[in-house]
Specification:
Bound molecules: adenosine-5'-diphosphate
Structural class: alpha+beta
Order of helices and strands: HHEEHEEEEEEEHHEHEEHEEHEE
Number of helices: 8
Number of domains: 2
Strand content: 15-25%
Radius of gyration: 60 Å
Largest sheet: 5 strands, antiparallel
Helix content: 40-55%
Number of strands: 16
């Protein structure tokens, strides 16, 4: 992955993680607060029940017409009400109780009577007298209202405001004022006579933060971002591959077009020859004496048609996996004679002389006849094209020197004559055909690219001829080479292995 993508993925992960972590944190806070609220409410209900119980006891005692003596009553009530520290009343205005008379009782009784319900007479931060209008009074120690173990486990710190200073009922979190999120709730007890304010406090310290969900979310979000990044990357890869496939398809199509043009180029030669031969036969048809010439022209046409078919199968062989050509020991003289026979009339019309010289007449190169013919035809055609394009002086009269089938002597120094020299000789264990012309030669910058498919300097050229010749030569374990001649002209050589046993 490149650094930009990595940084982007990291950024996305960070944003995703923070958003998720905030949500988890908030959710955790809400959950904790809900639990805290419920636990505080439970504690408030438990304490309220006790307070209501006090009111019920006082009401019961007030209703008794012959109440038992408080000092006898107290021991029987105390086991069920551990918070009860004493009780008593004022029968006939004098105090009768299990403990001393609380100071301010008369005022409290008067106040209770005016309110029509018990009132609280605080004694200290933890204890208070609950005084009924009937003067029956209970001394309650709030520390024993509910045993701390019975309070919900989720509660941390509880205080009850009875006197001036708050009474601590529970202190499970001594560091409640330390770092963290404080949860606080205040609720009065649900008894009209004892509406003490219950304060609940709990701090969500770092220890209670949702570290595990955060960690899991960190991992999940990282996997998520990695997955999305990988999917997006694989989608981009797939898109790139599709694009590449599309480009390749387009390239194939254009190669196909170029191939088609190349095939047309190659077939043009035999088809032109067939046309020329057929026209000549047509002209000579009515003349009885020219029958042999007609037969000859038709034979030549058939030969060219076969050649065209061969070229097509050769092209097919080129685009298919290489199939070894049908190789045989070839007679260079016969090949050259056939070439001269076919090309000389047309070359003569262009003022070009074609010569053949074989330095080793007995030598037999090993190759595929059709392929070699095709190569030589191509090279001769290229030489002719180069010669026709180059102006020479004085111009040679068309068809002046070239009776068909007559081998011409090798060109001497005759700059005014367009010449193509076809030579054959043995070099080591190979036979070399060379096709030389005295045209302008090959431009220096073109030399290294001559055999590259579709390289051409000619306006009508396809640039396939030499590439094809090189492939054909290679398929026969031969090779094709090009060089310039002095003072002018180009020379192409086809080197083929010698057939075994050939002289
Ligand atoms: P095409 O004939 O379609 O241009 P070729 O592959 O046969 O394609 O030839 C490629 C190029 O080689 C030609 O365009 C030409 O520039 C150069 N070339 C071939 N033969 C000769 C030659 N005998 N003299 C000069 N240049 C030549």
């Amino acid at each position: 992955m490149n650094p930009l993508l990595r940084h982007r993925a990291l950024f996305y992960w960070l944003v995703l993680f923070l958003v998720g972590a905030l949500w988890i944190g908030r959710q955790n806070y809400v959950d904790q607060y809900d639990r805290f609220f419920q636990d505080t409410s439970i504690a408030q209900r438990m304490l309220s029940q006790k307070a209501v119980q006090h009111e019920a006891v006082l009401a019961t005692l007030s209703a008794l017409s012959h109440p038992p003596a408080p000092e006898r009553l107290f021991p029987s009530l105390q086991p069920a009400m551990p918070q009860l520290q004493g009780l008593g009343y004022l029968p006939g205005g004098a105090w009768a109780g299990s403990t001393d008379e609380p100071p301010g009782l008369a005022t409290a009784v008067a106040q209770a009577r005016s309110l029509g319900r018990p009132v609280v007479l605080p004694r200290d931060a933890a204890r208070y007298w609950l005084v009924a209008p009937s003067s029956w009074s209970l001394l309650v120690d709030a520390r024993d209202l509910v045993a701390p173990a019975d309070l919900p486990a989720g509660l941390a710190n509880l205080t009850l405001a009875i006197g001036q200073a708050p009474l601590t009922l529970l202190a499970r979190q001594p560091d409640a004022t330390g770092p963290g999120w404080p949860l606080a709730l205040s609720k009065p007890l649900g008894a009209a006579s004892q509406p003490f304010m219950l304060h609940s406090l709990r701090t969500l310290t770092p220890a209670s933060w949702p570290w595990l969900p955060w960690l899991l979310w960190g991992l999940t979000s990282a996997l998520l971002v990695a997955g999305v990044t990988a999917t997006r990357r694989s989608r981009a890869d797939a898109r790139r591959q599709q694009e590449q496939a599309r480009l390749a398809a387009m390239a194939r199509l254009s190669t196909l077009g170029e191939m088609a043009a190349g095939i047309a180029h190659e077939l043009n030669q035999p088809l032109t020859a067939i046309l020329a031969q057929t026209r000549a036969a047509q002209r000579l048809l009515d003349d009885e004496d020219e029958r042999p010439a007609v037969r000859h022209a038709l034979l030549a046409s058939a030969e060219q048609a076969k050649r065209a078919a061969d070229i097509i199968s050769r092209m097919r062989a080129l685009v298919q996996p290489r199939v070894p050509g049908r190789r045989e020991a070839l007679d260079p003289d016969a090949l050259a004679a056939s070439l001269q026979f076919l090309r000389e009339p047309e070359l003569a019309r262009q003022g070009i002389r074609l010569t053949w010289r074989n330095a080793n007449p007995g030598a037999r190169p090993l190759g595929d006849r059709v392929a070699l013919e095709q190569i030589l035809h191509n090279l001769v055609q290229n030489a002719a094209d180069a010669l026709v394009a180059a102006p020479i002086s004085p111009p040679a009269p068309p068809g002046a020197n070239a009776p068909p089938g007559t081998p011409l002597p090798l060109r001497a120094d005759a700059p005014s004559q367009r010449e193509i020299s076809l030579d054959g000789c043995v070099q080591g264990d190979a036979y070399v055909f060379s096709v030389s012309d005295n045209g302008p030669g090959i431009p220096a910058d073109a030399l290294p690219r001559l055999f590259t498919p579709f390289y051409t300097t000619r306006e009508q050229g396809m640039g396939l001829g030499l590439a094809l010749c090189e492939t054909l030569a290679g398929a026969m374990d031969g090779r094709l080479a090009a060089r310039n001649l002095q003072p002018s002209g180009a020379c192409f050589t086809v080197t083929l292995p010698l057939a075994k046993g050939a002289a």
